Amino acid sequence: MLHNAIGDKPKFDVSIILIYLALALIGWVAIYSAAPVEMHGSIFDLDEVYGKQFLWIILSIALIILIFAIEIKFFERFSGVIYVVSLVSLVGLYFFGKQISGATSWYAIGSMSLQPSEFAKFATALALAKYLSQLDVSVKDVKHFLIVGGIVLLPALLILPQPDPGSAIVYLAFFFPLYREGLSVWFLLLAFIGLGIFIGALLLGAWWISLISLVLIGIIFLLSRKRYKKRRGTKPQVSWFITALIACVALAFATNFIFDNIFEERHRNRINIVLGRLADSQGVEYNIIQSEIAIGSGGLVGKGLLKGTQTQGGFVPEQHTDFIFSAIGEEFGLMGAGTVVILFMLLIYRLVIMAERQRNQFARIYGYAVAGIIFIHFFINVGMVMGLLPTVGIPLPFMSYGGSGLWGFTILLFIFVKLDAHRMSYQH
Amino acid sequence: MKKILLLFFVTLSGLVFMGRLVYLQIFNDELKLKSELNAVKTVFDYPERGFIYDRNGELMVANQTAYDVMVVPRELQVFDTLELCGLLQMEKKDLIKQIDKAKNWSWRKPSVVMPQLTQLEYAPLQEKLRKFPGFYTQRRSLRKYLVDHSAGVLGYIREVNQGVIDVDDSYEMGDLIGKSGIEAQYEKELRGKKGVKRFLRDNYGRPIASYENGKFDTIPEAGANLTITLDSKLQKYGQQLMQNKHGGIVAIQPATGEILSLISAPFYDPSITMGRERSKNINALIRDTITRPTYNRALQAEYAPGSPFKVLNALIGLQEGAVTTEDRFYCNHGYNYGGRKKLGCHSHSSPLSMERGIAESCNAYFAQVYRKIIEGKRNSHVGMDVWSDHVKSFGLGGFLGIDLPVGRPGRVPDSDYYDKVYPSGNWYATTTISNSIGQGEIVSTPIQLANMTAAIANRGYFYTPHILKEKDGVGIKDEKLTTKRYTTIDARHFEPIVEGMNQVYKTGTAASVQIPGIEVCGKTGTAENFAKINGVTTQLTDHSVFIAFAPKDNPQIAIAVFIENGYWGSRYAAKIASLMIEKHLKGKITRTDLEDWVLNHTLEEEYIKPFSGKPFPINGPPVPVDGPKVTIDHSFIENTY
Predict the structure, then answer these.
(1) What ipTM is given for this predicted complex?
(2) CB contact under 8 A, B7 and A349
(3) For labeling, which of A73, B180, B544, B626 is most exposed (least CB within 10 Å)?
(4) How many Å is the maximal CA-CA distance in chain A?
(5) In this complex, which of B9, B21, B34 lies closest to A337 when CB atoms are compared?
(6) Which residues of B16-26 are buried (b: 16+ CB within 10 A; e: fewer)?
(7) Which CATH architecture has domain B42-223?
């Protein structure tokens, strides 16, 4: 149904568009400063990364106009096709992909490179929203849940061996729409418990974790028995607790095996650094140290554009891509970096509010997926750049250099802006 | 709950990130400091180290450019190891070892792979080095020695160690510092002042801009050029004469205290302390514990002075009124004191007055003069202290205060000393009679003997011997070096002693080494000495000692020569001293037969004797060398009495 046909006037959410433009422009200026060049010429110089980024931004605006012009039902109807095309593009990498810095994640088109994993995110979000929004589908149903899991995990599993573990981890973001649609919080709790046991076993050793598990599970068991005796709960089955304990102990003892055999050396190093188990060994920690130095030396108001000694000296590797936040931290200080953090928080808050006001489930699920994906990127990227999380190579949305990334996020975000604009008329 | 989980996570991570930002940017000063270290490159502009000239303006030490080959392991790529080894003239395993060492030290910081290539070795490397990413060369200024002698005086420079950097922040890792000799003594003057330039640099260390517009930059100040008191030609000649001998020569200009010559043998070429073999060479020098070339015998070796010391006893005797020049003493092939004890002497006419006593070096004469000095006082304690003070006024028994970093005080005994040796207090002139002939508890270094000779030549005073003459063309002003130090002997008492020393040369024990046309005053010495060999005190061949000054009136040179195990005074020391005097005063040698004798005689066989592991005759022929390994206590050799 064409919105014009029923006289519905779309209401585009201005705050989202403004935040989007602010982030993209701050990112562009930061790229100008952090670009690995001898001399900073015109910011529009198309031979340099900042000129190209300007071009990507202009093309993104074109994309936005295009998305706004497309008929509203298109995204839902063609979500399956888009998803399949996206999967095919990921599979195609194994045959026609171009290797850049060790990962076969790009198609070479002339002098440009296109990264299909950046586009797979919105495709997956569309497919997930489409499937889950069917009336007879519920995430609580085991069969449906498995199909949902397949939709989400398929692209992640295709991306993982490129290898691009960073882009694969992003698919954790789909927990948020699933949770909103009724997925048990136990998945999250179990994930946290599992992660806790894993990290704990690395730090303290399997025996200590087993002991702690025994004590904690024992306490919970005794508490629930007391509850039961006061006739306030169900009878605790001893077998459940024993099963839980065995699972915890098994994971604790499996930790070192998993750590040593599943992870690669460099991944182990990155994790060990964050856990404090490893000091700088031949420069593994270098990126993080340099990034922290750059941010830390920025102070309250920063050193000024093009005046950051670390940024201009090129001390932070990949600063114009994954580490762009450190350039902002150095040259614009707490004011600049804090503004970026707040802009992201506002963006995600706004997205959640917008998702909640959707009248149809497709738009709501898609909105949550957008918010979740942007949040995971923001969380992992900024956490990494400030030395709080292990190094994972993923970009900061709208800000890091790269056409594929910017376009991928732009499409992801503006499909939702488009859906939201038509929320009053857009029904199933 | 369903609706707020994501909001909760966003809020939580936003707060954590803001907190982290505040911590990093506001409260963490360490990161700001690291940023400075990272981005501000301090480049030192090294001034040229001062040159060293001899007293006649001959350039002895200058500078040369050398190149260290450096490696930054992180920037290494696969390269043709064999080609690089060829260029560096280095074994492959050594190169790999060096690179591994560099990796252990730092992946990012440069390490030295091959130090101190000469200009000649550098030239072929320079063209090819760009084929080897990670390797580069670092220009360095090194010493260039234009002389092959005087290593012990000039000293050498080396990279400063952490201990020095810790206490003096004007030194940086890799800076050079004087390690011994003049280089160490006048480090401050020679070094100059480093200029500092600060740049903002990039990740590869390339400068991108001046830091704070050069506000903190300074200009280097060149090191001072030093003119030293040595006569390079005399040094070279003396070193030739000392070939195959162990010992020291010190020559002083009496009128100024300037050290004309200071030679310690065995010696080495100063150039071996430079270049790629330097550490090997320096280690070899230090590890040579048998001939000990780094031990400066002229400054550090404490020997019994022997007979030259007799002239001091004559002077003290006159000053204290214990004897007159005309008093005669009998000599019965020696002197009997205290029962059956006898101080032996050689054949000569008897009795002798002072002049002949000196000329004949009569032990009996000086034993009796010594007794009169000590016994002329209230008791032997008082006598001994009076005697000791006179001796010390000649610069013996204490550090002279010369401007070189090494030295020894020697020893002049006094009453306290003998009270410790004989706790009963029962000691007398006869107990210490060896002092009369310079063999007792007295020990002195060659430079102390030379200074004593200068004091006699000056008839009663001396200047502290010193090595620095001018700094940047301006004469030294250090009062410690330019003030006369008077002895406790009145000037009038010196003339008869000078006469006696002149007689030594004309008709006495050194008559065989006369220099035509020059009036020399001298005194021979033959010093007994002992060493502990495998724990057994063993007498070794006597040392050959000679002191002299010339000309007799208006002396230009005072010299002391000490030849270890040189048999007797006139055999080696007097010959060498007379050649040195002739060289200095005439500029050429007329007695080539004497010169040939010294050049062609070696004492190496004598020095092997204690190490032979077999019994050996002293003051006689050599012994075969293929004995068991022997340990020698050197400290004991130095302190012979």
Answers:
(1) 0.93
(2) yes
(3) B626
(4) 78
(5) B21
(6) bbbebbeebbe
(7) Alpha-Beta Complex (3.90)
